[in-house]
Structures are given as C-alpha cells and as structure tokens.
Amino acid sequence: MLQMRPGCECCDRDLPPDSPDARICTFECTFCSECADRRLAGHCPNCGGELVQRPRRPAAKLGQYPASTTRVLKPEGCGAPA
Length: 82
What we know:
Blueprint: E1 22-24, E2 30-32, H1 33-39, E3 52-53, H2 59-62
Antiparallel strand pairs: 1-2, 1-3
InterPro entries: DUF1272
Protein name: DUF1272 domain-containing protein
Organism: Variovorax soli
C-alpha cells in the first residue's frame, strides 16, 4: 500500500492524499508537480526513476488506511536527477 507522504521532498509543499499535484517514483519518493516538472525534468533525484502522478486514495478509505504523516525533506534542496 502506498505511504502517501504528506509533502514535497524538494520544497516541502503540502501534498494531501487527494492532491492531483503529487508525483512519485517506484520507491515512493514524493514531489510536487512543479518541482517534478521544472526542477527534476520528470526524474527522481534519488534513484533516477520516472516521476508519475500519485494515485489518489478514495476519501472513504482514508479512515481505515490513513496517509503517512512522516515528512521527508532534502535540506540541501533537489539537485539534478541521479
């Protein structure tokens, strides 16, 4: 099950579970669409994988399967993809 991380690793922008602006790689690294497109050219800076739109969990399932509250942030910012 996806962790549904709550924020962008680059800019710390909030990305709630229903956000259409969340992008993830296969390791669930999470970025906002602006950072993914403009800064990272669609590739994860951690693994080099493709960043795609994160699926949105149905609101009715969030009570039983809540999104993660653990934020991951790169204090040095995001550089070029790996």
